[in-house]
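Work package 3, deliverable 3.1, input record:
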Amino acid sequence: MLRLDCLRAVYSKLENCLVVTIMGATAAELHSLGHRSNFFYLQHAMGLASSTGLGLALSLRDQKIVVFDGDGSLLMNLGSLSTMARYRPGNLVHVVFDNESLLSVGGFPTATSTGTDLEGVARAAGIPTVLTVRTVEDFSTTVRDALDGTQLTTVIAKVEPTGPAGYVIDLSLVENRFQFRRYIQSLKRQ
Amino acid sequence: MPVSLISSKVIFDALKQCDVRLLSALPETWLVHLIRMADEDPEVILIRLAKEEEGVGISAGAHFAGVKSAMLMQNHGFLASINGIVSFAHLYKIPLLMLISYRGSFGERDPWQTQGGNVTEALLRAMAIPYSFLDRIENVERRIRQAQTLAESSLQPVALLLTRDLMWEE
């Protein structure tokens, strides 16, 4: 399963969500499908994408939030699973692309390649719904159902350790950040 | 426990006066009353963290959402948050109002706090984070308001160091 195919399969569904991605391949691939002002790419601060999603979800209870996390990033902030589980906002969908690799920095294997089971970790941390998917069809159905549902969900998507040729996207970090915030403020005025 | 209830109340009221509606916190002795006040106030969202750096992401999310937030932590929690502050708050120009208990300074009896006390201000200066002190109860309200004003206008982290003189009645 390719991450790009997963993102493509749910892209239309992201239109009405606030989307936070991690850095590197995930950001570049989502951006390549067509940037929208409701997408925020966290191009550094590994581990904090899920925390950002939690802050958004608890501040905007009527808005669906999607975080596209990765195994390397989540392993840097496993405590975030326990914090998310503690407050379990039903408007947050936490997707973890697990390619068992720190792809964007050279492809070094992460601990999920040697047996760490992120589904088990998330479940034991108390995330109410945790699912692992291995096909694009399952990914699409699971993420769409989670977005239509009302329970905090972590989806572990097992993907190939491949990505685009480069990771730089034609959008400055601060431009992205101001655009994202302005988009949210415009929603609140509606 | 001689943590000042009065000072804690003045700090909490000042945060609310500044429209802070989301507080992230990791418990530490000096912060117990503040955290309890946040927990008991239905107008404030309290997020108890596993590690302080999470608070940087949470405050960024709140800022995008248009909700004013503050972070409550010990100076060792600030040390644990440095990458998040640099590679999120500084990189993306995110305002952070950080209330940091200044352990390991004059009067500290716990040996394990002392090394962190030595480096706190040096690190704040090295990171070019504007900071001031909450040391006298009559200055608390104004200084919190000023810190938040600067954080919001400059779009950067600003720190207030909660001192022993304010927080500890002994």
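The helical segments of chain A are 3-10, 25-32, 49-59, 71-75, 79-87, 118-125, 136-148, 173-189.
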